[in-house]
Specification:
alpha+beta; about 650 residues; seven-stranded mixed sheet; single chain; five-stranded antiparallel sheet
Length: about 650
């Protein structure tokens, strides 16, 4: 079929357009190919020439800058400092022994570090650098750099190392970092490559390990040109890693400093909670230790000194240890009875100094007895018989339920290591764990915080905070991460009858402010600052002990409190191991820490009873001198 001239012209135009498009694409491809060839043959000629001459390009990871840790006021708790180190790559070194021998003639090598490095080489791939010497001087680095041609595989590096300016103050809170171990790698199914960086530091305990991912972030990388003998010729390019997030804690360094100084040589712990948001203002465990010792690997001598100390400086007593709460638990028993409708404020129980349960006699701490006691009086004078009687009326299940409601028997979500849940026993627990039925004597012991009941100082502070406010306050240790504030833990209403709480609160007020109260000797007399508290003594051995007994056999001393009574702002828990008596040993510490927290500085002497002012003045001067000396060593405010 013949085409018309018009159709023929249209077909020719289409063929011409297709030809132009196809030709253009071909031209573009050829041009791109030419430009790529020019880039490879001209612009990258030197790089490929070096590769052809048995040089190679290595990609090496750059450790990210670890996030810093601050207190609530911006005081630095954990920081980074520059450090020089010498590394050796086995596959580049050839004869490792010869290279190390040459290196040893230039710089002093620690025998322990060297042995550790050689052992590390055996278990790591040959292309991974291993740190031979760390924290070396600039002069050592210079000598190694000058002699680089004779030291194949040896590299000098500048890195960052963790440092804790506050030393002992926050060892149990912030924790510490250390070189990556096989145990650290075992936590991951596929360990991140940066954990293979020589002597890379990761969190070991405390906030450092609980917030490892936030603090660490991601590594950078650099491309370096390495010649045939392993010497780095030049750095080709670099991409810095993402710095870790900064973390701000709720703790107050000044208050923590005072608390640690106030505890002195005691084996003790103190927790102070803010009652608005649940902020942990102080969480001190004494004695403490210097976490900087662990950063580079602690020596056997230093570790053994800490590990064999009978006051256990390595233990985070505030969250890790659990103690019988003693009479501080009586508020829980009272609230359980009030909530069940089995106790009225004016109900009385006669205390003859003992309580008969079947064929067994349970003694009150006051052998002569207290006489008739109502709720407020029983708390004020810590009558045991009153609570033995309540135990039989209320039963362990109601007591256990109230204890959990008040924050006991719970491992609170706080980023510290080995946080205990303590123990709030009930019938099912005893059958499950002890293979025995619950008996009445178990309830009698539990009612006064003895027997199977165990609590941590943190839990006691939470319990006291909930008694003071009626809210489900929980402890908050991290205030913000990278500037983003974490949610408040001020809690919601516990649903307890306010009148029941008031009755218990009045009993605690009487403990510290009534002449017959067990804590009257450690009262606060400043208007608007008065404290409500409860003392406790927890037996360690099954007999009455005194200061004449061996230290390890003496009773633990406890005291919990909140203040001011009319407008509660803080709750405090103090446990002094083997302190004999809560009123004598723990209550004065609680009073002093409470005043320091409320005033924000050394309180005026007229806040104390007149008879104590001379002693308190001397104590304040001594503690102030100690704190000034510590601060002068390392000023560290961001």
């Amino acid at each position: 079929m013949r085409r018309s001239p018009k159709e023929t012209a249209e077909s020719a135009r289409r063929i011409t357009r297709r030809g132009l498009v196809l030709g253009g694409l071909q031209l573009g491809f050829v041009t791109t190919l030419g430009l790529r060839m020019h880039h490879m043959q001209v612009d990258q000629a030197d790089e490929f020439r070096l590769l052809a001459e048995e040089n190679r390009i290595n990609i090496r990871l750059i450790p990210p800058s670890r996030g810093r840790i601050f207190d609530r006021n911006g005081v630095v708790i954990a920081d980074n400092e520059p450090t020089y180190r010498i590394t050796l790559t086995r596959e580049d070194a050839g004869d490792v022994a010869t290279v190390i021998a040459h290196l040893g003639q230039l710089v002093e090598l620690d025998e322990n570090d060297l042995n550790r490095a050689l052992a590390e080489m055996e278990r790591t791939p040959p292309f991974i650098p291993v740190t031979i010497a760390e924290r070396v001087s600039w002069e050592d680095i210079s000598r190694v750099a000058v002699n680089a041609p004779a030291l194949p595989g040896v590299t000098t590096e500048v890195g960052l190392s963790r440092v804790y300016p506050q030393k002992e103050l926050f060892a149990h809170v912030a924790g510490y970092v250390g070189p990556v171990s096989e145990r650290d790698l075992a936590r991951y199914e596929d360990p991140p490559p940066l954990l293979r960086i020589p002597r890379f530091q990761v969190g070991k305990v405390g906030v450092e390990v609980r917030h490892e991912e936030d603090l660490r972030d991601t590594a950078g990388a650099k491309r370096v040109e390495v010649n045939a003998v392993g010497r780095v010729m030049r750095e080709l390019d670099r991409r810095e890693g993402e710095s870790g997030a900064d973390i701000q804690l709720t703790v107050d360094t000044d208050l923590q400093d005072y608390t640690q100084a106030r505890l002195g040589e005691e084996s003790a712990s103190v927790v102070v909670l803010d009652l608005e948001k649940g902020d942990v203002l102080t969480i001190a465990s004494a004695p403490s230790y210097n976490p900087n010792l662990f950063v580079r690997g602690i020596s056997h001598t230093d570790f053994n000194a800490l590990n064999t100390n009978d006051h256990r400086p390595l233990a985070s007593k505030t969250v890790q240890d659990a103690y019988p709460p003693g009479s501080t638990f009586k508020m829980v028993t009272a609230l359980a009875a009030l909530d069940a409708g089995l106790l009225a404020p004016d109900d009385t129980v006669y205390c003859p100094g003992h309580y008969e349960v079947g064929s067994r006699s349970f003694r009150c701490w006051k052998r002569s007895g207290h006489g008739y006691m109502n709720l407020e009086q029983s708390l004020r004078e810590s009558c045991d018989v009153f609570y033995y009687d309540l135990a039989l009326k209320v039963g362990i299940e109601r007591i256990a339920d109230m204890a959990r409601r008040m924050g006991l028997g719970v491992a609170h979500d706080i980023p510290m290591s080995a946080v205990t849940s303590g123990l709030v026993p009930d019938k099912a627990w005893k059958v499950r764990e002890r293979g025995a039925e619950w008996v009445i004597g178990d309830s009698v012991n539990a009612a006064i915080g003895q027997g199977f009941v165990l609590t941590s100082p943190l839990q006691l502070a939470v319990m006291t905070a909930r008694v003071a406010t009626g809210r489900s306050i929980s402890p908050r240790l991290v205030r913000s991460i990278d500037g983003v504030e974490t949610p408040s833990r001020g809690g919601t209403d516990l649903g307890l009858n306010p009148n029941h709480l008031l009755q218990v609160q009045r009993g605690m007020f009487a403990v510290s402010n009534n002449r017959r109260g067990t804590g009257y000797g450690s009262r606060i007399i400043a208007e608007g600052m008065r404290m409500a508290g409860k003392s406790g003594t927890a037996q360690v051995v099954s007999r009455i002990t005194t200061e004449a007994d061996p230290w390890e056999d003496r009773d633990h001393a406890l005291f919990v409190s909140f203040a001011p009574f009319d407008n509660p702002k803080i709750a405090v828990a103090v446990v002094v191991e083997h302190g004999v008596g809560g009123s004598r040993t723990a209550a004065p510490i609680a009073r002093d820490v409470t005043l320091q927290a409320l005033y924000g500085e050394d309180p005026p002497l007229d806040a104390y009873p007149a008879k104590d002012r001379g002693r308190i003045k001397t104590q304040q001067e001594k503690l102030s001198s100690q704190r000034r000396a510590r601060k002068s060593e390392e000023p560290s405010r961001a």
